[in-house]
Amino acid sequence: MLNEKIHEALTAQVNAELWSAYLYLSMSIDLEMKGLKGFSHWYYVQSQEEFDHANILINYLISRDSKIRMDQILSVPNSWSSPIEILKESLAQEQKVSAKIQELATLASRMEDFATQNCIQWFVNEQVEEEQSLRDLINLFNMTAEFKCGLLNMDSDLAKRRYKKPSIIG
Ligand SMILES: [Fe+2]
Q1: Nearest Cα to 164, choosing from 132, 126, 138?
Q2: Domain with 49 in it: what CATH number?
């Protein structure tokens, strides 16, 4: 049986991952409305990945015979001024998630819950990748924005992102 504090923290993290999925879906819609189909596609895949993250935690809670509580998902913004604003907000969101994952890892370590530590380790690595990919996109955007075709080239590159189900889900 999971410690109550860990159970609460994991439940909160399920909600945070679903909120991220909701946020990125909203960004995807806004980018589609702006005519940036590649950016929109990239964010749609990003939203699916966040949904997977929630599922990884749900599966873990089930495997530990713990109650699942699906809390309310708060609303998200619906429009942004530009793609760079979206990218910057996404990086800020991932940095917040990384801090929450760090807290979860610390709690699991303090409670000597090695199974939860092991589960959370996957997220620790994932957050490093999430932050890096957004930083890369922000840098690419800043480097190419001065060229007329920069945004369009970046848009067609982002259209190539393929959805990959994490192997941890099975
Ligand atoms: Fe996530």
Answers
A1: 126
A2: 1.20.1260.10
